[in-house]
Amino acid sequence: MARNVSVQTKIGFTIAAWAIALLLFSPILWVVLTAFKTEAEAIANTPTFLPQNFTLENFGAVQDRSDYFKHAFNSIVVSVGSTLLGLLIGIPAAWAMAFAPTKRTKDVLMWMLSTKMMPAVGVLIPIYLIFRDLRLLDTLQGLTIIMTLINLPIIIWMLYTYFKEIPIDILEAARMDGAELYNEIVHVLIPMALPGIASTLLLNVILAWNEAFWTITLTSGRAGTLTAFISSFSSPQGLFLAKLSAASLLAIAPILLMGWFSQKQLVRGLTFGAVK
Amino acid sequence: MGSISLRNVKKSFGDVQIIPDISLDIKEGEFVVFVGPSGCGKSTLLRLIAGLEDTSSGTILLDGEDMTKAPPARRGLAMVFQSYALYPHMTVRDNIAFPLKMAKASKEEIDRKVEYAARTLNLSSYLDRRPRALSGGQRQRVAIGRAIVREPKAFLFDEPLSNLDAALRVNMRLEITELHQQLKTTMIYVTHDQVEAMTMADRIVVLNAGNVEQFGSPLDLYKKPANRFVAGFIGSPKMNFVDGPEAAKHNAHSIGVRPEHFLLSRENIPGTWKGTVGVAEQLGSDTFLHVHVDGLGLMTIRTDGDQTFSHGDDVYLTPDATRIYRFDAAGLAI
């Protein structure tokens, strides 16, 4: 598309875009820089931009105090586990809503979404009591289940949107070709919806990785993930900014890297179907 | 193998009745075409036979066996869709092999049958391509290949040629007819194009508003239409209808004359219909004249390609007395 844009306008927009991007990135940048400062420098009255005394001691201290690798392992188990479990439930559910809808399908979709409208704290007490009675408090199983449940509406909605783009003719052709439901889903639907399924997977891993409310309330020592790990550095020892930054950096690094390497897939998945 | 019977089949979507009540017997090896205007229920009827829709009531028998409740995968039928419905993520080879894989055929059997189908349909050099790298005609051939390898009891075609251009459509029409002669398998073919119906079918089912108007051979339908609807639907250009006193002369509520059953002249012969040529459509072999006949309205006349009538000419029409179709007030043939 040819557009008549002057050089000045172009420069103006470019500067504005960079400025906004840097503004959004600045807290992360601050965390990164602070993680390499000493505690004294981190809370100095005249803040420094770059670390004056570059140090790695915060990372060592953080690992010594609350075992980063155990928390990272828990994060991986919960985020990947809950996403896979969510897909296992979500794919058949989205299939039914996209390809065998009833009069109530739209209502069910809205109802699922409505569960995301309530603040999580509204169901804190019943969930806590259920978890206590089922002995799921501070377990990876319990955390995986709650993470699956809170993300399931999003998983189903995303999959439903992708599945709607697939012509039903092709699924009907599979049925005519002798495919029972299982084969129709595994050999035809899933390969065709793979970009959508992949971005659903990525997005949900990220959401589960960053989830803090339930992780902090339902776990203590054993099943805590990296969000619990960060929070353990924040409240009681509020002044240890450098260590808090080091912990945060360690917690977000894996997911940041994953997002970086899969950004193409993420963007493609999130805009899937926008243009035929 | 391959007889299909429908017994009092009914289908409604909610309150909307699509098929009020249909009973049909399709013989083994027959090429039957379902034809009718859009919305007449012909595709729904095909989908009921395929099992892609559930009947509201009635029975569907395949080879005498009740298959009314069987899922499509168990009916042993193959279907070719208007949209081709190829699996975009599979190569041509895998597309054709898919039904065999679903039937758990051995690797050797799959290879042999895929090679055979590819040779029959001139697809051998495209086997490793994806569907998106094929032309419309090639895609349709792959869809047919996928249907052939199953060795189905019957083939179901749902307007398979609608997405092709005119020249290719004629070619594929011939190919499908040849395929039927070669395989001798029952075929049901849905189309809204009465030319496809006339040229391909052993027997035609003319559908209108979910009802069978007539079921017979193409020439039966042309020569002995059961009612005014069939008379108007079969034949191209359409039959001309005349009501009122002109029809009463033949003891009928209305009469019909096909465009090819007129005698044309420039001289006034007593008893003829006088008209003025509106549009003359010249096809080379034929010319279609659209004539405004005094008191009777617009009529279409088929004449040879060498005639010299043009816009505004006066013309006198004599319908062939032996080929006038007569209909009663309810539209039934007399």
TrEMBL record, chain A:
InterPro entries: BP-dep_ABC_trans_perm, MetI-like, MetI-like_sf. The keyword Transcription does not apply. It is found in: Cell membrane. GO terms for biological process: transmembrane transport. The chain crosses the membrane at residues 12-33, 72-96, 108-131, 143-163, 184-206, 240-261. GO terms for cellular component: plasma membrane. Belongs to the binding-protein-dependent transport system permease family. It is a multi-pass membrane protein. Pfam families: BPD_transp_1 (PF00528). This is Mannitol ABC transporter permease. Its main location: membrane. It comes from Devosia psychrophila. Keywords: Cell membrane, Membrane, Transmembrane, Transmembrane helix, Transport. Residues 72-262 form the ABC transmembrane type-1 domain.
From TrEMBL, chain B:
It is a peripheral membrane protein. Pfam families: ABC_tran, TOBE_2. GO terms for cellular component: ATP-binding cassette (ABC) transporter complex, substrate-binding subunit-containing; maltose transport complex. SUPFAM superfamilies: MOP-like, P-loop containing nucleoside triphosphate hydrolases. The keyword Glycoprotein does not apply. Residues 4-234 form the ABC transporter domain. One of its GO terms (molecular function) is ABC-type maltose transporter activity. The keyword Membrane does not apply. Keywords: ATP-binding, Nucleotide-binding, Sugar transport, Transport. It is found in: Cell inner membrane. Belongs to the ABC transporter superfamily. PANTHER family: MALTODEXTRIN IMPORT ATP-BINDING PROTEIN MSMX, MALTOSE_MALTODEXTRIN IMPORT ATP-BINDING PROTEIN MALK. This is Glycerol-3-phosphate ABC transporter ATPase. The lineage of its organism: Bacteria, Pseudomonadati, Pseudomonadota, Alphaproteobacteria, Hyphomicrobiales.
